[in-house]
Specification:
This protein is α+β, with helices and mostly antiparallel strands and 672 residues long. It folds into 5 domains: 3-122, HPT domain (Four Helix Bundle (Hemerythrin (Met), subunit A), Up-down Bundle), CATH 1.20.120.160; 133-254, Alpha-Beta Plaits, CATH 3.30.70.1110; 298-348; 357-536, Histidine kinase-like ATPase, C-terminal domain (Heat Shock Protein 90); 541-671, CheA-289, Domain 4 (OB fold (Dihydrolipoamide Acetyltransferase, E2P), Beta Barrel). It contains 22 helices and 23 strands. Strands 15-19-20-18-17-16 form a 6-stranded mixed sheet. Strands 1-5-2-4-3 form a 5-stranded mixed sheet, with helices on both faces. The relative contact order is 0.06.
């Protein structure tokens, strides 16, 4: 069997168990008496050991086993949960994660295993706490086998001593029949297997509980057999009983009837075990999905999405032909096709949607470690982790969120003594939340720290050369605070592992804007700050309005548009050298797309100017175009290495007539 075929499944499964370990250890640190979490950690470590052993990953198996020994002592109450043991277990989890991702990066594995074993020795415990209990006896106890005459003849005709081997599997053993098969195969190297209870065919059909027995004939000593069986994972206990006299294995004329009764009892027990096991699995972790789900390779989803995108383009092209030549019959036939295409597109989009918990789950551990490093008390609150985003965005948003959370802890939250002096709780609050807002997802990072002081930002901006005094005087407080996103800007006086190097927040803004998103800050000195990111649900296919600017087609994403109006030039006013219009009691700045996109202004004066009102943050702007073509579904194509002329473009789209339309980055157009 080629184990490489199972590598991907192993990686996925091990990732789940590592996540369970991380979460359970975090809970255990705050609730040291929580036996459920200790058991969950033990089960996860034990499963990782078994999986690694099956795959032949000896380094993972040994490290998992060393972890399992410590967890077993915690489970038995022989050692107590404290910071030392939690830190040591976290260190082992981090190393296991490295081993699963890039084994070459792990250098001091033996040192860590030695450290784990030394911890046990310091506690005066046995280094191997999970050694299976093996007992042997020369006993005349009642034997659970009654043999037929032909089976007795086999024993009489062969050399060797009969023995009963009783095997008890661990409660959380998943593949019981597989473990039983491994026992059978191991025994066949040392003698002859006469009979099993339950019967071997039933065991291989998973019709067994946690125990089974084997009648075995061998010339080997019981110590040899015990040693061989000890190498098999997920076996709780092995008991070997030597049979002194053949009469103990008496045949019975009513054997068949008894076997049938035994089968019925065993079937009943199996059903009860399966029911109990099912309940345990469901309660084990909310991460585990129902059996009705399947794993799909990400590349296959991407390929399917690309095919659907091409289908949308071709459909649009055919629709364009029908409209151009007034082909009524064709247009009529295309309507159901459009419906099916849209449903297919929506289905694929839904398959690509994944909960943001995939990103949020990393933060409890990150916050815990960072708070410990900075000697701060932090309470992390997570809300809306079930909110879904396109997988592409999920893959990209992790690093920006890490930067912002680290920034909130390093810059925002004061140390406990300072918080007490200010009349605050010693424990600072970091709140990470997500929710849907129209066709967008909003992610907020909120802290109750010291807030952002605009005066401090102004002084640092001048010191760093980010802005001069005259520029700062014309800025609002909100605009000054946004300078923290400037490249090379930092308010820390000293460089440390968290901040002060002037990198991070500019990367955050660039990454979010590359995802067609926006970021905003609300802050109050002494009260705290809230960073708000707004991101599109998907980056693949969007609804947009086609506009025309200087004979070039552009797309404005529909989620940014509030309304489309025709503006009379006489209604345009000038305030502070800026053209504006009054609309429903609000003053809306006008932006010439000719100017922003470096296009020549038209010579003729228009009686009405086509204007798209867009919302950016809490502000409204009017984007003036030559004409509005109409709403259309477009497939986004990424444009790499954008030049200065294209910095306000979020991507491209292929239209039905084969022409290219550029997608406007509304955030960049309105703020730059």
């Amino acid at each position: 069997m080629d184990m490489n075929d199972f590598q991907e499944l192993y990686a996925s499964e091990s990732r789940e168990h590592l996540d369970i370990l991380n979460d359970a250890l975090l809970t255990l640190e705050n609730d040291p008496e929580n036996m459920e979490m200790i058991n969950e950690c033990f089960r996860a470590a034990h499963t990782l050991k078994g999986m690694a052993g099956t795959m032949g990953f000896e380094r993972v198996s040994r490290l998992s086993h060393a972890m399992e020994n410590i967890l077993d002592l915690l489970r038995d109450g022989q050692i107590e949960v404290n910071t030392e043991v939690i830190n040591l277990l976290f260190k082992a989890v981090d190393t296991l994660e490295l081993l699963s991702n890039n084994p070459d990066e792990v250098e001091n594995l033996e040192g860590l295993i030695t450290e784990l074993k030394s911890f046990l020795e310091t506690e005066n415990r046995e280094a191997d706490a999970s050694e299976k209990e093996v007992t042997s006896s020369n006993s005349s106890e009642e034997v659970d086998f009654e043999l037929r005459d032909d089976e007795l003849e086999i024993i009489s005709a062969n050399s060797g001593d009969p023995m009963i081997i009783k095997v008890r599997l661990e409660n959380d053993c998943v593949f019981k029949s597989l473990r039983a098969d491994m026992v059978f195969e191991s025994l066949e190297e040392y003698g002859e297997l006469i009979k099993a209870n339950p019967a071997i065919d039933k065991i291989r059909k998973e019709e067994l509980g946690d125990k089974f027995q084997i009648l075995f004939l061998t010339i080997e000593k019981e110590e040899t057999i015990a040693k061989a069986l000890n190498n098999i994972s997920e076996i709780e206990e092995i008991q070997i009983t030597l049979i002194d006299e053949i009469e103990q294995l008496t045949a019975s004329s009513q054997q068949e009837e008894k076997e049938n009764n035994l089968d019925e009892l065993e079937d009943k027990k199996v059903n009860e075990d399966k029911s109990k096991n099912s309940t345990n699995v469901k309660s084990l972790s909310k991460r585990l999905k129902a059996n009705s789900t399947i794993r799909v390779d990400v590349e296959r989803l991407d390929s399917l999405m690309n095919l659907v995108a091409e289908l949308v383009i071709k459909r649009t092209q055919v629709e364009s032909v029908g409209e151009s030549y007034n082909l009524d019959e064709l247009n009529k036939k295309l309507k159901p096709l459009s419906k099916v295409t849209s449903e297919l597109q929506n289905s694929v989009m839904e398959m690509r949607m994944v909960p943001i918990s995939l990103v949020f789950n990393r933060f409890p551990r990150l916050v815990r470690d960072l708070a410990q490093d900075l000697d701060k008390d932090i309470n992390l609150v997570i809300e809306g982790e079930e909110t879904e985003l396109d997988r592409t965005i999920i893959d990209e948003i992790g690093d920006p969120l890490v930067h912002m959370v680290r920034n909130a802890i390093g810059h925002g939250i004061e140390d406990p003594k300072e918080r007490e002096r200010l009349g605050k709780d010693r424990e600072g609050l970091i709140k990470l939340s997500a929710f849907h807002e129209g066709n967008n997802v909003v992610i907020q990072i909120q802290d109750d720290g010291q807030g952002i002081d605009p005066e401090l930002i102004k002084n640092k901006a001048i010191e760093k050369g980010v802005a001069n005094l005259s520029e700062l005087e014309s800025m609002s407080e909100e605009e000054i605070i946004m300078l923290i996103f400037a490249a090379g800007f930092s308010t820390n006086e000293q460089v440390n592992d968290v901040s002060g190097r002037g990198v991070g927040m500019d990367v955050v803004k660039n990454k979010i804007e590359s995802l067609s998103g926006s970021v905003d800050i609300e802050s109050e000195v002494g009260k705290g700050s809230t960073f708000t990111m707004k991101l599109p649900l998907t980056l693949s296919i969007i609804q947009g309005f086609l506009i025309n600017v200087a004979d070039q087609k552009y797309v404005i994403p529909l989620e940014s548009i509030q309304e489309i109006v025709d503006v009379n030039p006489d209604d345009i006013k000038t305030i502070r050298q800026e053209e504006v219009i009054h609309r429903r009691g609000s003053v809306i700045p006008l932006i010439s797309l000719h100017d922003k996109l470096n296009k020549e202004e038209p010579d003729e004066d228009k009686q009405e100017i086509s204007t798209v009102i867009v919302e950016v943050g809490n502000d409204y702007y009017g984007l003036m175009a030559d004409s509005i073509i109409g709403q259309q579904e477009v497939v986004i194509k990424r444009i790499n290495d954008l030049s200065g002329d294209l910095e306000r473009i979020a991507g491209g789209a292929i239209l039905g007539d084969g022409s290219i339309a550029l997608i406007i980055n509304v955030e960049e157009i309105t703020t730059s």
